[in-house]
Amino acid sequence: MNDPNGLVYHDGVYHLYYQYNPGGTTWGAMSWGHATSRDLTQWTEQPVALQARGFPDNITEMYFSGTVVVDEKNTSGFGKRGKVPLVAMYTSYYPVEQTLPSGKHVRKDQQAQSIAYSLDKGMTWTTYDAANPVIAEPPSPYQDQVLEFRDPSVFWHDQTHQWIAVVSLAKLHKIVIYTSKNLKDWQLASEFGPANAVGGVWECPSIFPLSLDGSREVKWILMLGLNPGGPPGTVGSGSQYIVGSFNGTTFVADEDSVYTPEEGSSQTANWLDYGPDFYAALGFNGLPRDKRTIIAWMNNWQYGGVIPTDPWRSAMSTPRHLALKTIAGKATLVSEPAARLSTHGGRTFTFRRLDGERELGRLGKALEIELSFSRKASLATEGEFGIAVAATKDYAQETRVGYDFATGQVFVDRSRSGEVGFDGTFASRYHAPLVLGADGSVSLRILLDWSSVEVFACEGEATITSQIFPSKDAVYSRLFSTGGETGNVKVRVKEVRSAWR
Ligand code: FRU
């Protein structure tokens, strides 16, 4: 699988649709898979929601990324006998030139926006063949982008009483914004971009509101995937965001959220996550504004098709709750795990002072770790403190998570994390800037799973998400402090129960 699609909370159920190949473990025959959950932790696999048309031998249409909305007021007219329709908007990708049932003619490899609806709470779907694709071509003057026009994200805009769709002109680093009263007829409203990171195509854009510091002031966030051209030190896919405002037609970026090279500033983007494996992030429709919850594809197009797993390939990130906080004078996205994990066997280790290495022993393969520590200002300029997780007994394999006092960065080092040879860029170290607390303290929350490590630093202003492929016996852990003594070390470790029923 790849991108999460159609995330929606409806009637007590979280729906996760996703880019899925029913015919193999590499990209192809793109369909919408489907899983549901009541708590964002335990997921139940459901039948494929939208299967590539003509699968397996004669595919004429694939279902690329998109979103789902609950059409409470039945603006679409798809509702029958009082049933509330769920409406999906997605990109139709046509591998062959053809004339569609709607009479519209499409080119080979064209990407266009289509809709489908469900009257049974998202379980089965009917494509709107009478008129699909409902947005057939990019707007003028961008018609030449017809092969690179995708990933609509739709939501209801209360203030202007209309539907909004944000679509990417991937190669131009632009988004286009459309409005609609009925989800069927769409009018172009505006465009935005390029801005900030433009190293690769822009994909999977979405915009959504959040209150700033929990106050009445609401800002809008544009969040999008970039492939390649992710955060510094990574290769391949990444996710960035821009803070701004939105009035129902136009997104305007805040001045301090965009960077121009002339400023001489080294910052080029606001990264949603500083690791290599956090892409195509999408939020749930159907939740209150300040319960914004996102899921990302925990993989990277750089090596997504060759990661050493079988029979599955790719997992989703843990769901994250987003908030907007003023940090160092700037509106910044912060994130924390949204789901309460089911854990057991809590253990706590405390060390008033620690220098060198300290064994923690066998901890396990799926862990929730809270680690906090501090350094005196005089020692906080060199060396590192952190924890090695998913390590073999001899530490030939380990994944190091910690803080680099010399550079002021949180890091994850997976260069010796296990199987790393399937891609030349995989064995690397990743870092995110993090200013020490006034008392010289750092706190890290680490979600370790069999094939991934997700790190949330301090208030969640720096996160690093990485896949790892350690061997079966990589269950050991130790702390390390270099370049001097680290104080007030506290480690709380809980084992996470399997999320599989
Ligand atoms: C992003 C992406 C989307 C596209 C989908 C196809 O990972 O390339 O732009 O809709 O994957 O599977």
UniProtKB/TrEMBL annotation:
Superkingdom of the organism of origin: Eukaryota
Coiled coil: none
Keywords, ordered alphabetically: Glycosidase, Hydrolase, Signal
Domain Glycosyl hydrolase family 32 C-terminal: 363-494
InterPro entries documented for this protein: ConA-like_dom_sf (IPR013320), Glyco_hydro_32 (IPR001362), Glyco_hydro_32_C (IPR013189), Glyco_hydro_32_N (IPR013148), Glyco_hydro_beta-prop_sf (IPR023296)
Domain Glycosyl hydrolase family 32 N-terminal: 1-337
A GO term, aspect molecular function: hydrolase activity
Family, similarity comment: Belongs to the glycosyl hydrolase 32 family.
PANTHER family membership: EXOINULINASE INUD (AFU_ORTHOLOGUE AFUA_5G00480)
Name this polypeptide is given: Glycosyl hydrolase
Gene source species: Aspergillus keveii
